[in-house]
Amino acid sequence: MAEDLLQIAGRTYASRLLVGTGKYKDHDETRRAIEASGAEIVTVAVRRVNIGQNANEPNLLDVLPPDRFTILPNTAGCYTAKDAVHTCQLARELLDGHPLVKLEVLGDQKTLYPDVTATLAAAETLVKDGFEVMVYTSDDPILCKRLEELGCVAVMPLAAPIGSGLGIQNKYNLLTIIENAKVPIIVDAGVGTASDAAIAMELGCDGVLMNTAIAEARNPVLMASAMKKAIEAGREARLAGRMPRRRYASASSPLEGLPF
Asked: Which of 5, 33, 179, 209 is an S-S bond match for 12, by CB 3.0 to 4.6 Å?
């Protein structure tokens, strides 16, 4: 639907699918998968991917140019607020003052769950420094609201642990987060296949961010296409409004009012 646009930090996007750039076999596969996804926002791990900081290595921006995609640098691999803030500052320099960033501060290497205390501290520092912060966090409704109140432009609760592919594990927390939010709520982490993405959209999420579900599929380009369709179908179903759930059958062709 042309009029149904995702709005983040004053910018609008036709696609509600956000994608990562890690775990692909090479830059060509990255490019082909992202093109198939239809995504307009592409997140890049500054500590792992070259976007200009290493002059002698292939630059991801050569295949995903910033004049075509919104590059969303992220702080993947950061375990302290200080490291996350420094990484965002580096990204802003590399991208000529680009203020939009994805903040994540991890708590441990096994689960990759966010360190919520450090996330709050880093978010507050970055917002005060003029960054437009899209923040990865746990699916705690109170914490999500607090991050919104700090000035984050989008809040991105996990659906399940990063890279797990387990799908939406707590629909009720997500529903509460969505109901209380005045900024976009984007599921980040845990999606495994197209039906997971559709469920997130049917619940009322504004978008879904994913990487592993596409990059580790047997055919990443085909999975990217499937995810694009799932996001669109889930969004349309949400806007259409589903039928009521009933305990018993309801005839498709009712007999009430007929003369026989």
From this structure: 5
Distance of CA 13 to the CA centre of its chain: 13
CA separation for the pair 228, 208 (Å, rounded): 10
Task: Please report, as a single letter, which amino acid is at residue 214.
Answer: I
Whether this prediction's pTM lies above 0.90 is answered by yes
> How far, in Å, CA of 161 to CA of 211, rounded?
13
Rounded percentage of the chain residues whose pLDDT exceeds 70: 96
How remote is the C-alpha of 105 from its chain's centroid?
16
Q: Tokens for 150, please give them.
A: 């700090």
95: Cβ contacts below 8 Å, ≥ 6 apart: 51, 66, 71, 73
Q: Give the residues across from 207 on adjacent strands.
A: 186
Q: What is the DSSP letter of 243?
A: P
pLDDT of residue 258: 64
Nearest to 71, CA basis, from 80, 79, 62: 62
H-helix or E-strand containing 132?
A: strand 132-137
Residues 6+ apart with CB under 8 A from 241: none
Residue 65, exposed/middle/buried by CB under 10 A (0-12, 13-18, 19+)? exposed
For residue 258, give the DSSP letter: -
Catalytic residues: 102
Q: Tens of pLDDT along 75-88?
A: 999 999 999 999 99
Q: In terms of DSSP bridges, do strands 11-13 and 6-8 run parallel, antiparallel, or are they unpaired?
A: antiparallel
User: pLDDT digits over 181-232, tens only?
Assistant: 999 999 999 999 999 999 999 999 999 999 999 999 999 999 999 999 999 9
Separation between Cα atoms, residue 198 and residue 252, nearest integer Å: 25
Which pLDDT tens digit goes with each residue over 43-61? 999 888 888 888 888 888 9
